[in-house]
Amino acid sequence: MGVNMNLGLKGKTAIITGTNNPQGIGATTALAFAREGVRLALVYKKILHEFDKSKIGVDGLDRYFKANSGDMAEVEERLRALNADYFVLENDISDERSVNDMFDCVIERFGKVDILINNAASADDGDYDTIETITQNVID
User: Fold this and answer.
1) In 25, 40, 47, 89, which residue has its Cα 20 to 30 A from 69's Cα atom?
2) 3 lies in some domain
3) Interatomic CA distance for residues 111 and 131, integer angstroms
């Protein structure tokens, strides 16, 4: 289901990062754009944390890790049902060279990039005593 809003985006090319959570903002945006006829490059990075059943309901992070630890299978299934023009890249957008390679792939496939939705996120336990203890990985 979904509503076609006719935003005048048909034929545009979008890169959307953080798209592997089927209920997340990235995947939802990708599906809405697919309905509008946008060509999609979907970018994700598999989270390496294991799902820990003992933490369910404690801090919410384990649900986040579970939702984002998979591949793109469910999201791709939904896009195929829409006959979307898309491809998927597993990419680390915290690495400049990887980002350049990502843009090169998209331009090679679609010829241009019209829209960038930088939706990638990261989470950890957030147990910091001071602002100085936040690592560069959290900032990136």
Assistant:
1) 40
2) no
3) 42
40 Cβ neighbours under 8 A, 6+ residues apart: 13, 14, 16, 30, 33, 34, 79, 84, 85, 86, 87
Do the beta carbons of residue 31 and residue 82 sit within 8 Å?
A: yes
Give per-residue pLDDT as tens, 69-113.
566 888 999 999 999 999 998 888 888 898 999 999 999 999 999
Q: Under a CB-based contact definition with an 8 Å cutoff, are residues 27 and 21 in contact?
A: yes
CATH, residue 126: 3.40.50.720
Contact 16, 106 (CB under 8 A): no
CA distance 39 to 47: 25
What does the block give as tokens for 59? 């801090």
Number of domains in the chain: 1
Separation of alpha carbons 17 and 90, rounded Å: 10
SS3 content of the chain, % helix, strand, coil (to 5): 40, 15, 50
